[in-house]
Design a protein that fits this description.
Radius of gyration: 23 Å
Distance between the termini: 72 Å
Largest sheet: 3 strands, antiparallel
Strand content: 5-15%
Length: 115
């Protein structure tokens, strides 16, 4: 009977590719199911039998340890740090967002104002 090894829903593409490569290099038989056209089904990696289950789980555990360590070494830049580094870009996008809000809300605001 097939065994669910790993859910792929909401994973970044690079992590999915890494998992495929890891299982291929270890010569572990697996198959994938997709999330479907609407993205509501279970996208996952399945093992056709339980013979290689422990080996696959150990490989994934080591991979996640490596990925967590890499994430700790390269933290995500905060919004303020990005704004200090690229002030013109942040200002331009802020103006664009404000203009979009104005265009969306102007008809409603004009209806509320007395004529």
């Amino acid at each position: 009977m097939a065994h669910l090894l790993y859910r792929l829903n909401q994973l970044p593409e690079d992590e999915i590719l890494d998992i495929r490569q890891l299982l291929d290099e270890a010569d572990i038989d697996y198959y994938e199911t997709s999330a479907g056209n609407w993205g509501i089904s279970l996208a996952a990696v399945w093992l056709p039998d339980d013979h290689q289950l422990e080996e696959a789980k150990a490989l994934l555990e080591n991979y996640h340890r490596y990925r967590a360590e890499a994430a700790r070494e390269h933290p995500v830049e905060s919004w303020w740090a990005h704004a200090r580094r690229r002030p013109v870009k942040v200002l331009a996008f802020s103006i664009l967002i404000a203009a979009c809000f104005y265009l969306l809300l102007a008809p409603f605001i004009s209806m509320m104002l007395p004529s």
